[in-house]
Design goal:
504 residues; Nitrilase/N-carbamoyl-D-aminoacid amidohydrolase; eight-stranded mixed β-sheet; 28% helix; 25% strand; hydrolase activity
Length: 504
């Protein structure tokens, strides 16, 4: 007999499926090939299999998470991002085990121990703080007279044998707490699990971009002023990035169309052509801001800039990650003004964005007035919604502000808005601005009574620096006075995407 422990490959899927089906006694609890493929793509070292005489005999699947974003109160769906594994982060600090199984034909070979040893070695190699798992309690249904705590204690004392928990305890994992409603449909465990951890004694703390659940937001209330060149414009951009990164901000938010002063050079053109001319500068500006994100170690939300693609003009917000990665969001709802003066086309994709501070969403100005978009983002796991806007009058600003406040309450999230202020007489259709940057919160005891975390002085160029605690959102979701996301009547209504390409 030849036993090999090695990284799982996608070519192993057929054998994995057979082994898992046998391990779970023919139930439908088998990972789909696309799920295995994604795990291998995002974290190949974390997917391990044991091969016996050329056959897949056992397997362990895991991800790395920034654990403080979840805490000790979580479900299997939450820790895996609704089974999407979008919660995986290479900059995380905890190895989280999401699956271990052994084909029943090989259960006398102590293969699971080999897999756990491989996980421990991986944890040490990656300098991760610990391994955590939500351990099922498959024999708990036989002891309905015991509380979960009593059951776990009796297993620890070896008065009761549990095939999962007894094994984990024998492998130096220690119970942390009981997790109710951990895995939906797990009737054997009565949906309880034991949160267990193994500590890496060789762990050496390093400076992390996310060392706690408190995220610092830096909002720029941008004064419209003439800029002769892109370089002069970038000097002002870098000034704000430098200042806000100096205060250890995790995000910098610029307003919608904050590069509008550069339109002055095209005043001889009609407004349609001038915006398309400005779009030619977008790649240069974007590259420079992406360099700033890396150099100043801060995630920058590039409010929005015009982009031409396939002869269509879009209003696009960019997220320049401090890692160098880029994401974008195209404004979906176009105002009559934007249609009339610029001929802007609406985007067709809406999705939460993974960052080193958890999932965020971006909506541009008018978009925040449509509650369906932010609800889709919330269902994707968004915790902070960023809304760059450009409003000319107080009426327009009031629409954005009040809708943003509503979105924070409806979706149990923080909402940050930032816009332009001042006058720009040298640019057609950009002459006056009204703005007041702010960060809004849900409305419950843990938050300000007016649901406003902070706000800037209206119509004055300044920055707004605000700390938001993601743990408060988690407490609200589970224990709030009202629980909006949980209490939705999905038996009567639902909000869902209609286009599959939005889900890719």
């Amino acid at each position: 007999m030849e036993v090999k422990i090695r990284p799982l490959q996608i070519d192993d899927y057929s054998g994995l499926k057979q082994a898992m089906s046998a391990a779970y006694e023919g139930t439908s609890a088998v990972w789909q090939e696309k799920s295995i493929r994604k795990l291998i793509d995002i974290f190949p070292d974390g997917q391990i299999c044991v091969e016996v005489d050329g056959k897949v005999a056992a397997c362990a699947l895991s991800i790395i998470v920034q654990y403080r974003l979840f805490g000790d109160d979580h479900t299997y769906e939450e820790i895996t991002g609704q089974y999407s594994f979008d919660t995986h982060s290479n900059s995380g600090n905890v190895l989280y085990g999401i699956e271990v199984f052994v084909h029943p034909d090989f259960r006398g070979l102590r293969l699971a121990r080999r897999l756990y040893d491989a996980r421990k070695e991986l944890c040490e190699q990656r300098n991760l703080k610990e391994i955590k798992v939500g351990g099922r309690l498959p024999n708990y249904h036989k002891y309905s007279n015991l509380t979960p705590k009593e059951y776990i204690e009796k297993v620890r004392q070896k008065e009761i044998f549990d095939p999962v928990l007894s094994f984990q305890l024998a492998n130096d994992f220690h119970p942390v707490k009981v997790l109710p409603h951990y895995l939906k449909g797990d009737s054997e465990s009565r949906e309880f699990a034991a949160l267990l951890e193994w500590s890496n004694i060789y762990y050496s703390p390093t400076k992390s971009t996310v060392n706690e659940t408190v995220i610092r937001l830096g909002l720029v209330q941008w004064q419209m002023r003439p800029f002769a060149t892109v370089d002069k414009f970038m000097e002002q951009v870098e000034f704000f990035v430098d200042a806000l990164s100096g205060y250890k901000s995790d995000f910098v938010l610029f307003p919608e169309f904050f590069n509008s002063p550069l339109l002055a050079a095209y005043n001889h053109l009609d407004t349609h052509d001038s915006m398309r001319a400005l779009a030619k500068k977008t790649p240069t500006i974007l590259n420079k801001i992406s360099e700033l994100a890396i150099a100043y170690n801060v995630n920058i939300i590039v409010g929005s800039m015009p982009v031409v693609e396939n002869e269509k003009l879009y209003n696009v917000s960019f997220l320049c990650h401090r890692s160098g990665k880029r994401d974008e969001y195209r404004k979906i709802h176009i105002t009559p003004n934007e249609t009339k003066y610029y001929g802007i086309t609406g985007g067709d994709k809406i999705a939460a964005i993974n960052t080193d501070c958890g999932k965020i969403g971006i909506l541009i100005c008018y978009d925040v007035e449509f509650p369906e978009l932010s609800r889709l983002l919330a269902l994707d796991g968004m915790k902070i919604l960023f809304v760059p806007y450009l409003t000319d009058t107080q009426n327009a600003y009031t629409r954005v502000r009040h809708c943003a406040m509503a979105r924070a309450i409806e979706n149990e999230c923080f909402v940050a808005i930032a816009g332009c202020v001042g006058n720009l007489p040298g640019v057609n259709n950009m002459d006056i601005q009204f703005g007041q940057a702010a960060v809004f919160t849900p409305s419950d005891f843990a938050f300000p009574t007016n649901a406003i975390k902070a706000e800037a002085t209206p119509n004055t160029e300044m920055t707004l620096i605000v700390d938001v605690d993601l743990n408060l959102l988690k407490e609200l979701h589970h224990f709030g006075s009202v629980r909006v996301i949980k209490d939705r009547r999905t038996d009567l209504y639902e909000v869902k995407r209609l286009s599959k390409k939005e889900e890719e």
